[in-house]
Input
Amino acid sequence: MSKNLVIVESPAKAKTIQKYLGKDFDVKSSFGHIRDLPKKGMGIDLATFSPDYEVSADKKKLVTELKAAVKKAEMVWLASDEDREGEAIAWHLADELKLKPENRKRIVFHEITKNAILKAIENPRDIDQNLVNAQQARRVLDRIVGFEMSPVLWKKVKPGLSAGRVQSVAVRLIVEREKEIREFVPKASFKVDGIFLNNNEQEIASKLKKDFEKEADAEKFLEQARTTEFKVLNVETKPGTRSASAPFTTSTLQQEASSRLGYNVTNTMRLAQRLYEEGFITYMRTDSVNLSQEAIEGAKKQIVSEYGSEYSAPRNYTTKSASAQEAHEAIRPTDFSVKTIGDVQLSKLYQLIYRRTLASQMANAKIEKTVIEIGNSKLPQHFEAQGEVIIFDGFLKAYGIVKAEDDDEENNEKLLPKVSVGEVLSYKTITATEKFTRPSARYTEAGLVRKLEDLGIGRPSTYAPTIQTIQNREYVDKREIEPQTREVVKISLAKDKIKKVVLDEKFGGDKNKFIPTDIGEVVSDFLTENFKEILDYGFTARVEGSFDEIANGGQKWKEMMMDFYSKFHPRIADVEENADRATGDRLLGVDPKTGKNVHARIGRFGAMIQIGETEDEEKPTFASLMTGQNIATITFDEALELFKLPFELSDFEEQPVSVGVGRFGPYVKWGETYISIPKGEDPLSVNQERAEEIIKEKKLADAPIATYKGEPVTKGTGRFGPFIKYKSIFVNVPKKYDFENLSQSDINELIDAKLEKEANRYIQQWEKEKISIENGRWGPFVKFGKAMFKIPKKKDDTKYEADELKEISLDEVKKWITDQDKNAFAEKKKPATKKKAPAAAKKAPAAKKK
Output
């Protein structure tokens, strides 16, 4: 056994570090935190704010193994990441493994390279308790907020909901943006574009300097222009420069990976983590744009070598944020001689980081901007054409032009032909087009990250989990918004003739943007109304500032918690006692058939329309909303239409046919088969003829395309792409096959491979007990129901071979399972007892009335 034991938090990091250290070092992984607050219960003493940490069930075996390794080592090196979370991991390891100060050393590095690792070992330190306390403060405060606010939501909104400090603020941002969009009243104006020709018949695209509010004014201008001689009134040429952006921080990497590569925040961080752990980039959770002198020199060498010395302009950047840690570095390559790597997805993100860092050390681009004014003194307004020429590309050679998410497509500036003042131009076309103002755009993932960062909410490590959490909780989603249609007027002047047309314009559609769900909106409104301070953007930013102070040793974390809780808890009690129940209720009108009120509201199973009152003697009737509808915007007529669903049609091929709407949208039901109605089609418009068409299309799609050993083979497209189905086996069809034209040999090949894989999947299987030993990607494992369990090592500390696992008894396997989950085979409570509780709850109010 090695004298030195190094513990890191991930297996990939351990593997990379091991190759840099000699045989005197043994590197092991803790697989993240080895202990945390308990999953059940708050786990915090609210009198002292002391956390009650515990080793999670899935880490107990690992902790035992680490303790055994510690006993054999003379020195333990704690090498988790250099941020607060990494410091806390090191602290938990030291405490749980009973490491004495003289037998442990803490090392940190922001890149996993041989030099960085060896330098860290030469400069160890002890655990920074201030960083640990900052992490504890965040963890404890967020646990208290979640555990105390969530039960209030269960009582006042709907069971099963949850709240969080940063997540709830992120949802609020999305809800407020959606309300802003709903309340937005578009204003129309007429924008005038002109295309002029010089003596050489070269086109000059231009825009009128002022818009017209009224159609009549735009038409009058075109009438004046029809008989006007246009001249070049002025030509102005100005030199200018463009400078490169700073190297990447976590936030700017997430934003740029979204706009340039289409990666979502979670995917970007997953790939960046791999790049860091495999030694390609520096630490990927940072809010600093600082570069080390070593990095600046490395970039300079590469720039001079690849582009020439005139492209090199070494510089360092300073971070605007006061909380940024300048001792850290921006995200950059560890070796500028490495330009690309094998894995395609990893390489795309790596090259983005590589080019951005290189560009930040390159000379400014030199441009020449030209503005041409076109018109006549008789006209009230003049046209302006803008263009620019790149004289020296500088950093653009490496990085290109960056386009912001909200840049107007119409502002693209083009190269202009040469003209002189006084030169007469002829118009080719002058067009006045009715344009409507647009509301603020909905947030993309990258846009939300930028907004959170601007407000000082969250830190580099929190953006991705925050965005993932608000989607997992179904408070927001990215459903597609179908565009609406409106009429726009277009007036054109060409060849001395004015022509007016009315066109249809699509507007308001959206894809891949955050939209609040009904429950997300109701929860956000309730929290904003009743917990104004917690949901206040300034308060959330101030809390982050307090964590920073604790990390710097300027504040004691338990004192901060005491101050927070002394104000927070009384508010919880007051809201629980006095706040009204929140359902998002909207009274839409009165049902003409029954004379009862029609409400849109949140119910036990989500958004719904209700006819009648809960207190009425006759029970209310309910209808679920369709995809794309929500309680805040549904109209009275649309609500009544929902009560026409489901409806019966005539039998088809001796099986009943009906049309309805369910969890996955509108459908035609034929016998026991549910067939989705095509997207955008109104289920209420589906008649007998259309229903039969949909059924026939489904039958055709499900018809066998071939046979395999006498059994039919069908094909389809599912969640994971195209597939063929043989008996009950689904076989994914890779891209190398022509899915639309699969041959019999293709089908045989695909099914043979799948059956062979399935045959090799099970080492042993006990179907009755739902237990099996299976081959997995990372080696054999035990499966019990849907749960997966590790296979322990043998008594001699070696792994079981496949042949040995074939001989293992069921009793032995059950013991492996219970060692990892003592309640795995415990008798579960009957569901019947759970069902009785609501019935009893309903009877209680009746008893009180008597």
